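User: I'm writing a short report section on ligand binding and want a predicted complex to refer to. Could you take this sequence and tryptophan and write out the structure as tokens? A short remark afterwards would be nice.
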Amino acid sequence: MDGKTIAKRESWASRIGFILAAAGSAIGLGNIWKFPYLAGQGGGAAFVFVYLLAVAFIGLTVMLAEFAIGRAAGLDAIGSFKKLAPRTFWWVTGAFGVLAAFMILSFYGVVGGWSIAYIFKMLFGSLANLSGEEYSNIFVNFITGTTEPILWQLVFMGLTIGIVVAGIQGGIEKWNKILMPAIFVIILLLIIRGITLEGAMAGIEFYLKPDFSKIDGSVILAALGQAFFSLSLGMGTMITYASYFSKEDNLVSSALTVVGLDTLAAFLAGFAIFPAVFATGLAPDAGPGLVFITLPGVFDRMPLGTLFGVAFFILLTFAALTSAISILECVVAFVKDQWGWTRRNAAFIIGGIITLVGMVCSLSMGVWSGFTVPFPAHGNLNFFDLMDVISSKVLLTGGALLICLFIGFYWKVENAISELSNDNKLSFSWLPVWGFVVKYIAPITILFVILNGFGIIG
Ligand code: TRP
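Assistant: Sure. The structure tokens for the complex follow:
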């Protein structure tokens, strides 16, 4: 790395642009697809309650850690560690992240494709007037098909690559500024529709009135894992995004805003879904099929359902897209900063390879489903699930653990605090508490999540 390349490095045009981009990264399939189904399976409000605690204590802590590292170094996820810890092996932390980004985007692009496909399926009536079982068959036949899901995946990845090619200000920032407000408007519309349906109250109660007896070890660990995924932590995405920050920006208030927006989006997504699910007499605990199998049935039964259904899948697609951009940017920034590639080549070539791996994920649901690999505590996994499990259960949590240990025991809490407070120009009296959490509490908690992922505890 020479000084010239650093001087020419892109940056965010405005603070609001950064906030929306970071929130765009955080708010994704994790919020609109995964959070509601986990809440639906984890007893509703009880899960929501534990999730909020996980976000406030561990999620925010790791977000601040990534912001401090990214802005202090001003480089990609791997380069940042090489710069702050020269001639050590700490760069492996970033390598975990870049590898995780690669794997996550491969299957994320497939699900993004399903989401676009469902906009059209809703629009053209192929999801109207069916029985519950038929909704399930349509979904399963679609995702196990050969060409159709791959074509939609190509559309989704094409959009993602196109935006990343256009760069930080002209692509990522610009599109997040358009898509993020649209996401919130659509969620609010869906909430209003849901709570004005007859019988919505049962859903509101399920979602807001916690039954604390439902909380056990597995709910706590699921909530923690979900907090990492939803806040885009552990992969260096936030290190990369924070590297485009200026030295005057307020990292702490930015982190609070991003965490707040992400949590609000997840919370509102559940609020848009559960009242409607209960009002139409369907079950909230369908798991991963909740938005693709249960919801089309919900829309079919409500007045103006097609309209709201189309809006829902547009919302899901926007959310997935703004996250996919950030995941690709994490890898692109690495090959750009470290290997000197142009943004354009990096986005096309890396994006292209990820798309190819994604096709294997897609095919592994159907024609290649016979090929499976055993994984501890998860049974035999097809390629799609293998990518998901290795990245979110091993690499993201491992990455987050190393990030905390790096700050606590190598770079030192004092340095991180002076970065977060802009060399003590801003004062936050609670930063020492953050230092304690990042050094001791967070690593221990994350270790539990990892051991649970391998089936060793829980
Ligand atoms: N947070 C996104 C979601 O909720 C997914 C995501 C984007 C992500 N970037 C990430 C997850 C980095 C982990 C790490 O869907």
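A remark for your report: Confidence is low (pLDDT under 50) at residues 1-7. DSSP finds 19 helices and two strands in the chain.
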